[in-house]
Design brief:
The protein is α+β, with helices and mostly antiparallel strands. It is globular and about 60 Å long.
Length: about 300
């Protein structure tokens, strides 16, 4: 990431960001929106972020991660999420934050990070582009050990790019020819696991991630946002699949996930994980895919590979 960041004095409050996003959406409905296809050039940074060990323990228990002082890759995403959200909540961000659909994540976990390490988190928006259903954007995040930034060394220990879709929003000046293609047909394999997700899954993940987006919390709050029922957090699903991949992934890996269809709660989710090894028997990658055993519709898929 380049350019002088905006240093935030404290971690942004997700609840306040959602309230502000709702107010911004109402204002734009009343006054109209003349947003141009230009992203803010400034990044946001919070320094010396210290994970809470009790929340870490609760996260590990909920997701099925091994109890450890090492932060899971999905936990770091949740830790950094408020900084990323603050970028999308800026007045000069051209897309509406509320209703944004999570499409994809690509994460590199470059070395183990322990809960005792204070961390610097930097986020910025990038790559505004067309989608067949609207406009998509990337939010890039880097996490490094506090104090390493001035050393000139490549001290990034975790980095991720999240891709979001503003459905139905078509900004002027964006080439629609670059829109992403439609998903390919899916044929469900034999599952290696079957998850039973209760109606409280969204609330349970919100308690350990801090993401209390109304679409995840209850039938009533989801209906207020235009959904028939609450849906599971995408990163809960992806992080649980990553936990199911297990310790074979080692200390450094690349983690990719693409989301296709939401999981309405309560739900049963089928999962298949397949592993590829090198000729010497070393682990190379694990591919995973999850779907509805009732309808056969794919929910998400991804890959965990060695760095």
């Amino acid at each position: 990431m380049t350019g002088q960041p905006l240093i935030l004095g404290e971690m942004p409050s997700l609840s306040k960001l959602y309230v502000n996003a709702a107010a911004t959406a109402a204002r734009r409905r009343i006054l109209g929106s003349s947003a141009a296809a230009v992203l803010p050039t400034v990044s946001h940074e919070v320094r010396e972020v210290r994970p809470d060990v009790e929340i870490l323990t609760a996260y590990q228990h909920l997701l099925g991660e091994t109890a450890s002082d090492v932060l899971p890759a999905g936990f770091i995403h949740a830790l950094a999420f408020p900084v990323a959200m603050s970028v999308m909540n800026r007045d000069d961000f051209p897309l509406p934050l509320l209703g944004m659909i999570h499409l994809r994540n690509v994460i590199e976990y470059r070395r183990p990070v322990t809960f005792t390490e204070p961390l610097d988190i930097v986020a910025r928006a990038d790559a505004l582009r067309a989608h067949r259903a609207g406009t998509q954007v990337d939010v890039a995040v880097e996490v490094r050990a506090s104090g390493d930034g001035a050393s000139g060394k490549n001290s990034v220990c975790w980095c991720g790019v999240s891709t979001y879709l503003a459905k139905g929003v078509f900004l002027p000046g964006i080439d629609k020819a670059s829109a992403a293609p439609a998903p390919q047909a899916f044929s469900a394999p034999d599952p290696t696991a079957l998850w039973q997700l209760g109606v409280d899954t969204g609330r349970a993940y919100a308690a350990v991630s801090g993401d209390f987006n109304p679409i995840h919390l209850s039938v009533l709050s989801a209906k207020a946002m235009g959904l028939r029922r609450s849906i599971a957090h995408g990163m809960y699903l992806a992080s649980r699949a990553l936990a199911d991949v297990g310790a074979v992934k080692g200390d450094a890996f690349r983690w990719e996930v693409g989301f296709e269809a939401p999981v309405f709660l309560p739900a049963r989710v089928a999962l298949d994980i397949s592993t590829a090894e090198s000729g010497e028997g070393g682990w190379l990658r694990s591919d995973y895919v999850a779907w509805s055993p009732r309808s056969g519709r794919k929910h998400f898929s991804g890959t965990v590979s060695a760095l």
